[in-house]
Hints:
By secondary structure, the chain is an all-beta fold. 2% of the residues lie in helices and 38% in strands. The chain is built from 2 helices and 36 strands. It is elongated and about 90 Å long. The protein starts with a strand and ends with a strand.
Amino acid sequence: MRALTRGRRAYTAAALTAATAVLLSAAGLVAGGSGNARAAGGAVVLDEGELDFTPRPVDGKLELQIDDRSSGTTAVREPSQVVLHAPASSLQYTPDPVATALGTTNMDSWQLGGWEAENIFAPEPGWNGSEAGDDTEITLSGYDGPGDFGMATYTPEMDNADAPAIPYLGSVESVQRSFTLPGDEERLLPVWQFTAEGVHRLTFTVTSGGSSDTETLAVVVGDDVDPADVLPGDGSTPTASPTDSPTGSATASPSPTAPAAHVIAEGHVDMAARPTGGDLEFQLKEGTELNHEWYEPGEVVMHVRPAAKRKIPDGYTFLGTPGDAVWWLPLQQNAGIVWPGWNTTEYAKADLDGRVAFRLDSVQGPGNIAMFHNDAMGVPVVSLNSGDGLPDAHTLGAGTHSHFDWVFSAEGVYRTTFTVSATLADGTKVSDTETIAWVVGDDTDPSTVTPGEGDEPTATPTATPSGSASVTPTATVSPSLPASGSASASASPPATDPGSGSSGAGGSSSTGGSGGSGTSVSGGLASTGAQVGTIAGIAVAAVLMGGGAVLFVRRRRTAL
């Protein structure tokens, strides 16, 4: 194996094969797009795909160039003509050894080449030293950004061995400013970490064989800034005229006749069954246990932001072809996206004869919706799936708070109609049917979408319950989805208290309506802001807290 040297120490390339490099860079904010998208000043926006930073001789002089393979062929680009975009989906859990090595935060950070790289749509930057003709010294000679930047190696193998992370570059004073890229290293893959959203500018100086080159790279981190509006390099490039800006970057303004929908785009929201005057009401609870508001489903639009876009991992073929794009709301809470759950905590066990049934009657929209969790072996257990026929249902005992993974297969507007039903302790059957509007992605402005049933034409065949279909609150739901439209699914519930667990093994749940905050992680898909792992199919205590991690950031300008 090839060695990467830092000072007099050598590290094998095997130690470099895991998490990699968030590139803090040159002037300007980068917007989403493909490798051919044009940003301000004529820059190319790189927001996904494989690329290498390659020092190579050009006309007898060393130059740092970018080999961009995001389109399937290799395009050679100058760093000063590129805006690199680390999208919102690159916000990930920060291992403590990485934070320690880089002198940064162990809160969630934006990472390129991290452990979740194979599951998200983001740039995959590496370093190629094989064309310089000799070893190359890489120096971070300047940095300007809203937080801190660092580059280090930390792999799952190192984690298992409790080994420390290996730092290479960083904006923090305690971290070295240079490392040696071996002349036989074809693809070095460290993790690039950014601690704050915004525009970062990284100035790299490469030296080999007595020749040097200095280039500034602009990196847009997160989606607060449109990368198409950011100037490349050090930001001195003249701003392109308004006619040169991509038309797709304009934000649609709400129609004067748009309904006054309440848009929920991030944080905790529960779909809840509530007792009201001897009846049952299906409502949405936004916020935490101690600070929340109640809304009717017909006055809310749920927005699944682009940060939820991920790749289908192996083992999830019920979602589609592995590697294809979906919009994934994970079982655990991730900052910046909505976290939908289920709630029956306003009912006590003594109030009900059996369980509360949540039945998905129909889905209208451009694609399919699935809701599931992983069992103790990491195998997906599907509770709701519009892709193989509806209605589908799952049940919860009284006093339960539960979360699952949700996945949408395409961008656009969806409408989900649910019937929530139960039998009260005196034998009275109660139910409520409501429709929730969802906007997936940013192709549609959620503030312009009519909440509730809406008036769009059905984009895909809608499965509806037959006239004889019924769901009783004592029913249990099969973990496998019915192939027919029958709503009378039945199966054994998981080995939990039948009065408080969720049927079909239910994701992450808590009972009793109060307790400590808790999160879990699902196996198979590493999600932003959570450690990689397999979700056990058992209930865990959680009173859900609404916000995400808060980063206190400062702008730093340093000559390194």
